[in-house]
Amino acid sequence: MPAPDLSGPTVDGGKIAWPDYRGKVVIVNTWGSWCDPCREEARDLQQAYAEYQGRGVEFLGINTREQGREGGQNFEKEFGVQYPSLHDPDGSLVLKFPRGTITPQAVPNTLVVDRSGRLAGWALHQVGPADLDALIAPLLAESP
Length: 144
Fold this sequence. Notes:
The chain is α/β, with parallel strands linked by helices.
């Protein structure tokens, strides 16, 4: 099933254009600065981002159900998050995902999008390094 268009404004005031991610494996993580499991997995996600950078893998966060940007900005600074995160205060981006691939009323969720733009896997819970490797490795093994 195709991934939804995830274009929009970022936590830091920039913009994301989903078509810029075509042809890459994309890890999408939904989070909130107020979420303890999100805080616990943030460094693992950042470490995986650094490990897979330059290997055809991109990371994209969705800071959801957080009205202002300040909480998200502070979260990214505290945990050293270097990949961009979309600002989704009303949850509209999260609701674009097909039923069963995400839990819209809870975070964190992590999804992987293959090079063809299809949802290839997801985890409806906090992820660690082994989970991320299991999501990413099979897609990197496929021919581009």
